[in-house]
Design a protein that fits this description.
- The protein has helices at about 5-25, 45-50, 55-70, 85-95, 130-149; strands at about 30-35, 40-45, 80-85, 100-105, 125.
- A five-stranded mixed beta sheet has the order 2-1-3-4-5.
- The protein contains five helices and five strands; from the N terminus they run αββααβαββα.
- Helix 4 links the parallel strand 3 (about 80-85) and strand 4.
- By secondary structure, the chain is of the alpha/beta class.
Length: about 150
């Protein structure tokens, strides 16, 4: 029996958010937060739209999920994000005590793994889910951006 609500299913939803960011001229990073196979929060980068360097997809979704749950801790939640979280977002995810992070593409320069950002001890992190699709979207964005300038 095939599980419809697997990591690929939710990463596709995060990729839809990344596409929205792309269409807005934002770096195409998208995220969904899930509890009990239900999406409780969505987000995509809004740094250009809001003129706010902290308006990353993860930050948008953390706030929305906390509001949905009525508390600041995201226990039993999984965050699906198309790009490995940066140091700022990983710090916020630490404080949220999120249970699991699943990312698509690695960010070897600014990602939390190479920067050795600590996550909450109970947080599990997994990567490479739909990595190719996430990477292609990011590369397409930066190629188009370079060609416009």
């Amino acid at each position: 029996m095939e599980h419809i609500f697997d990591d690929s299913y939710f990463m596709k939803k995060a990729l839809q958010e990344a596409e929205i960011a792309f269409e807005k001229g934002e770096i195409p990073v998208g995220v969904v937060i899930v509890i009990d196979n239900k999406i409780i929060a969505r987000g995509h980068n809004l740094t250009e739209t809001l003129n706010d360097v902290t308006a990353h997809a993860e930050m948008q979704a953390i706030t929305a999920a906390a509001n949905f749950l009525g508390g600041k801790y995201l226990h039993n939640c999984t965050l699906y994000v198309t790009l490995e979280p940066c140091q700022m977002c990983a710090g916020a995810l630490y404080w949220s005590q999120i249970s699991k992070i699943v990312y698509g593409a690695r960010d070897p320069e600014r990602g939390c793994i190479n920067l050795k950002t600590k996550l909450h001890p109970k947080t599990v992190i997994e990567g490479g889910v739909m990595e190719t699709e996430a990477s292609v979207l990011l590369k397409r964005f930066f190629i188009e951006k370079r060609n416009l300038n």
